[in-house]
Amino acid sequence: MIPCPICGRELRITMTTYETPFFGKVLLTSISCECGFKHADAVVAEFKEPVRFTIKVNKDTLFAKVIRSTSGTIRIPELGLEVEPGPASQAFITNVEGVLMRFVEIVEMAKRWNEEDEEKVKICEEILERLRRAMEGEEELTLILEDPLGNSVILSNDAFRERLSEEEASKLKTGMTIMDITGLSEEELMRLEKL
Ligand SMILES: [Zn+2]
Q1: Distance 10 CA to ligand 1 centre (A)
Q2: Is 151 among the domain residues?
């Protein structure tokens, strides 16, 4: 059994495997405990190398699937927005629109925190407007997903994939790994999938 890091009770672990056309198996693990502790992570079983995916956000790409591992950094350079891995980051599977919606939530939170500062509120409102326009297909933005561990993926023919240099990869945060499942053998992974 694996004890909960918060309360010590036994953790519930679920694993889901996704077969993806170009990146092989993607494994999504989620760990939870009765006390409310939760953690999710995604691991790409093949092609482990530092990667960067770049995709133009427009009507044709809004529904492209995005798998962001806890080691993935997401950026929208035109708006100066970035989500880096942190101790509380969770893996998620969503689409480009879902990523934009997450940014909307983050910027709305920033707006509330800065409600005394007229200038910052104005900047937040401008960013929110541009995110909404992008979701309507009226403005083209760029979405960049970088992962030094190669566990994040944008599944689309419109996404440009490149290998990161060692230097670029070393500047990225990798987040926290609670359970190292990448060290497991194929056989062990198969067994875990049946749980
Ligand atoms: Zn617990």
Answers
A1: 7
A2: yes
CA 39–ligand 1 middle distance (angstroms) = 11
Residue pLDDT, tens place only, 124-151: 999 999 999 999 989 999 999 999 888 8
Cα(14) to ligand 1 centroid in Å equals 16
Give the separation between CA 79 and CA 69, rounded to whole angstroms. Answer: 22
- The reported pTM is 0.75
Both structure tokens of 35? 């006390």
What CA–CA distance (Å, rounded) separates 153 from 61?
14
Residue 7 CA to ligand 1 centre (angstroms): 4
Residue 26 placed within a domain:
no
Give 73 Cα–ligand 1 centroid separation in angstroms: 28
Number of domains comprising the chain: 1
pLDDT tens readout for residues 57-116: 998 999 998 988 888 999 999 999 988 887 667 788 889 999 999 899 989 998 999 999
Residue 18 lies in a domain: no
The CA 180 to ligand 1 mean position distance, Å, reads 19
Domain that holds residue 156: 47-175
Reference 134, options 153, 157, 107; nearest CA is 107
* Distance between Cα 15 and ligand 1 center (Å): 19
For the chain, the distance separating the N- and C-terminal CA atoms, rounded to the nearest angstrom, is 13
What does the pLDDT read at residue 149? 85
Domain containing 153 — which CATH number?
2.60.120.1040
